[in-house]
UniProtKB/TrEMBL annotation:
This is UTP20 protein. One of its GO terms (cellular component) is small-subunit processome. InterPro entries: SSU_processome_comp_20 (IPR052575), UTP20_C (IPR057525). It comes from the Eukaryota. Residues 1-116 form the U3 small nucleolar RNA-associated protein 20 C-terminal domain. It holds the Pfam family UTP20_C. The lineage of its organism: Eukaryota, Metazoa, Chordata, Craniata, Vertebrata. It comes from Sagittarius serpentarius (Secretary bird). Transmembrane segments: none annotated.
Amino acid sequence: IFKFLGAVSVDLGKDRIKPYLPTILTPLYRELNSTYAEQDPTLKNLSQEIIELLKKLVGLEAFSLAFSSVQKQANRKRAMRKKQRALQTVANPDIAARRKLKRHKNKAETRKRKIESLRPTYKAKRPRSHALKDLAMVE
């Protein structure tokens, strides 16, 4: 898709690409600023190359305006999600408590995995499987 966006931008030319610049920059910006663990470095390099190509194509000033608008929009969305999450903890404390318990459980599992990788002789206690208990409709 990134290659397609680059090809379309080159094909459209300087004047016809300007209205579509924020739309093209949005996925490129998202890829550049992503922090997830399984990130593909080739995608990051490709998005950087296409951004450089767009900079040369439309000029630094037009590119900067479009890029800053994309950046502001992403920050606004991030702040909105954070606010919604904070409001949800107040509005639905039971859902927030479940989320917190799940996060703590995952954290403990990660810690056990990390210890096992550092010390192969050490075996952390694993929680027993309660498969039948989980299937039962017990409150």
